[in-house]
Amino acid sequence: MPSRIRKANNFVVAEGSEGELYIYIEALSSRPEKPRIIYDGRDHAIFLRSPEERVILDYIHPEVREKLRQADGVIMVETLLENIKDSYVAEMQIVDTIPIDWSKVELKSWEEAMLEAK
User: What is the pTM of this model?
Assistant: First the structure.
């Protein structure tokens, strides 16, 4: 089965009272299988939800980048409207560079996006 790549419509990174990290995303219909996040400490990350499903987490806010780089895992919280559908831990895989030309998937840097928004 070919791999599906989608961009997260909305996601939020939050920190719990004991330093744990949560990423809230819109719920998907399939079940996650060996979820992990590939991250290089820059603007974007790839959430490998299953071998067939990849979700681009675009525009990682500069204030949370270092916390993500230091995390062994994050708690993924999938929401449907304002309800939690599922939650699970996704392992963090820190790499030097994610080998993707982000411009080919129409993504820019956080700084470029903020300049365009002004």
Answer: 0.81
Is the CB of residue 49 less than 8 Å from the CB of residue 55?
yes
Helices (runs of H) and strands (runs of E) counted in the chain: 2, 8
Residues 116, 118: Cα–Cα separation, whole Å: 5
Structural contact between residues 22 and 43, judged by C-beta atoms closer than 8 angstroms: no
Q: How far apart are CA 13 and CA 25, in angstroms?
A: 9
Q: What are the pLDDT digits (tens) for 3-29? A: 577 888 789 999 999 999 999 999 988
Nearest in space to 46 (alpha carbons), one of 7, 101, 2, 96: 7
The two structure tokens encoding residue 108 = 């820019």
